[in-house]
Design goal:
single chain; about 150 residues; alpha+beta; Nuclear Transport Factor 2, Chain: A; six-stranded mixed beta sheet; 3 helices; about 45% strand
Length: about 150
């Protein structure tokens, strides 16, 4: 069997492109993970400050936000609840976060640990497991859904 250079060219090109793309994809995933990590920290900072205006641009219009008591908020009701809250966070940490990018979606998990101080002086500790789903909308990442489970 006689094989000439033309018969080898296409498989060699395909292999080269495949290997080249494999080295580029993780770079994009890392950039997306970094962008999402910044968004998650911006959300935590705004949440700790009770800043609804800081949270608003981070959320998708279609937001579904589930609390550990099974209450479900939309974007509008979440922002209204934050603006009218009768408590402040005396501490709020997102511990051991993990971020997994899957196409235009990111799965974020962490342990939510904090303490709420109510206007009557009562303090309530919080220890939750949080699942956030972020969606890439255009060139920006938006929080699409959030779910909380008491630990």
């Amino acid at each position: 069997m006689k094989i000439d250079r033309r018969q080898l060219a296409l498989p060699a090109l395909a292999l080269g492109l495949t290997l080249g793309l494999m080295s580029v994809v993780p770079a994009f995933a890392g950039a997306d993970e970094d962008a999402i990590a910044k968004k998650v920290e911006a959300f935590r900072t705004a949440q700790a400050a009770g800043n609804a205006e800081g949270i608003a641009p981070l959320c998708a219009d279609e937001l579904s936000y589930s609390h550990s008591n099974a209450k479900i908020d939309t974007k509008a009701s979440l922002l209204d609840g934050i603006a009218k809250a009768n408590y402040k966070w005396s501490s709020l940490e997102y511990r051991d976060p993990t971020i997994r990018v899957v196409g235009p979606t990111a799965i974020v998990r962490f342990n939510f640990v904090g303490e709420q101080e109510f206007t009557d002086g009562k303090k309530t500790p919080q220890n939750l497991h949080i699942l956030m789903n972020w969606q890439k909308q255009g060139s920006d990442w938006k929080l699409l859904s959030r779910s909380a489970t008491r630990l």
